[in-house]
Amino acid sequence: MAKLTLNNILTGYASNTAVNANNDLVEAAIENTLSRDGSTPNAMGADLDMNSNQLTNLGAPSTGTDGARLQDITDAASLTSSNASLTTYTPSGTGSVATTVKAKLDERPSPADKGATGDFVADDTTEFQALLDNHSTIYLDGSKTYGISETLTLNTGNKIFMNGATIKILDSASAASLHIFSGSGATDIGVYGPGTLDGNKAVSSHTKGHGIILRDTSNVFIGGGLVIKNIKDDAGGDGDGILITRTSSNSDNITIDGVHGIDVERNIVAIESGTDVNISNISGSGTGLHCVDIEAGASCTIDRVNISNVDATALGSGSAIAVFMNATATLIDNINIDGLNVDTTSLYGVQINGRSGKNIGRVNISNFNIANGGDSAAELGFYATYVDELNISNFNIEKSYESGMYCRYIGNLKVRQGNSNNNGTGANAYGFYFRDCTTVDIDGLYAFDGADGAQLYGLYLDTITEFICGSNTNFDGTTAPIFHTGVTNWNIPTHNTYLGTIAAGTDDERPIGIAEGVNGSFVIEAYLINAVDITQNDTNYSTYDVGRRSASGLVLTSLLSSLPTTQVTGGTDFQGFVTTALGVDQNQGGFTSNLVLTFKKTDTAAGAALDEAMVTTRYINF
Length: 622
Prior knowledge:
Elements: H1 15-31, H2 70-77, H3 81-84, E1 88-89, E2 99-100, H4 101-105, H5 125-134, E3 137-139, E4 145-148, E5 152-154, E6 159-161, E7 166-169, E8 181-184, E9 187-192, E10 195-198, E11 212-215, E12 218-231, E13 242-245, E14 252-264, E15 269-271, E16 274-285, E17 292-296, E18 301-312, E19 321-325, E20 331-345, E21 350-353, E22 360-373, E23 382-398, E24 405-421, E25 429-447, E26 455-469, E27 474-475, E28 480-489, E29 494-502, E30 508-511, E31 522-529, E32 543-550, E33 553-556, E34 575-578, E35 582-583, E36 596-602, E37 610-621
Parallel strand pairs: 3-6, 4-7, 5-8, 6-9, 7-10, 8-11, 9-12, 10-12, 11-13, 12-14, 13-15, 14-16, 15-17, 16-18, 17-19, 18-20, 19-21, 20-22, 21-23, 22-23, 23-24, 24-25, 25-26, 25-27, 26-28
Antiparallel strand pairs: 1-2, 29-37, 30-36, 31-34, 31-35, 31-37, 32-33, 32-36
């Protein structure tokens, strides 16, 4: 059908009317066509049929309503950074917010986006670093082992989710100093496990390095089941799993939670400088030095460090926790340790070393267990020197090579609720050794020396300005329960000595009182409790005496008389009968040197055994 049909003009009569009518038809026809210059109206009123012909030279679409070319459709099928930003993506579910495909894909960038293979054959260092430089949050493929030959630099905002992957130094890496990660001046960074950082120390050609080194960083998280292993040291101070240090300012607000070190040549975690550092759930095996090492560097400050749940049962060497004040350090203060389990170390279970003239400030440690601390002379379960304030509570120490707990040059020492037993497996030792302290305040302590130990004294006191002892204390030693000298103001209201089992038909002698003199006069009373199997009708029962032992020998004073029938019934345990008080003349000024209050059991024939007996000794000042 023709789009325009004009009327024929046959005569001149009324020609103007016919011409005008034709003009109207022409105008209407033009209005129904498309304009090349865009003159309106220029919109289709119905479908356009190209009759199998092409639209050529079509421009690239720029909005969502533009026509698409074949190339545009092909490009959309293989998304690029530019066209993905044009495609809208709305997650399913109520309340979902629309975003672009590009933004959604950028939420999970991985090293493969930059060409990393993760096969531990190719060197993925360049690709991995490019990812760190261009993205904040990175997700690794848990099935991959990414090989690197240079240190990866963490930038502000970088958060790496390992997802079970491994980052490992290549066999061919030859850098003199090579860390797996280094953060310098970065904030808001993290390495999240599970996953493994492997220094490959046995094979790689590099010289030394740390697993992760943090300098001048803040707001950091490392952990979540992260394993750091095979970290190399050339005896030059490297070889830590994680090192927190500084160049110009303290690292702060650092959280390390859930890290296991394996064959780390120095420390699993080392702090040279830092404030507000929180370390928890740390464990290790085969390390060269310590689980956690707090050692302030030159002009460095370490303040407000909280440590909890350290498992050093498989450490193998070093100490579980070590705190050192170097000569050029500025400050170590507010160290809090809560939750520690140690078994078999080659140094100390815990060592805290201040310096003369440069004390460590306050240290609080609680809820810890130390077994088999040290393997040579002068190595102990717990060791502390030069601390202003040391608070210790809720602990168990046993089978240390020498003493269980050694504290010297402490300003204010408070020790509560703890055991120190069977120490001295390699040498003579003490349950508790406190010396050169201003104030020692103890309560709830128990020191027992059994067949596995060689504790000379349960409690050793030397040069203490003020000694305060609560009533709930138990001390035992092969020489005496307590050694005491140079204590200006002292108070020992009561302590118990565990005698153990003394077989029937034997004589035995056990020290139950102080070994050294004290200032001031006092009265001592001894009570025998829990003496099993001695009955009223036993004609062969033992006699029990308490005497004073000096350097020349035991002087028995028959302070424990024969067993009084009013307190003995058939098969009933003795529950505390009082000796005649052992008095010290007020004018004597106390015991002379090396006097020991001694309990002695003497069988008249094949008398009864003394089973699980204990003597309670009470000191009364006057």
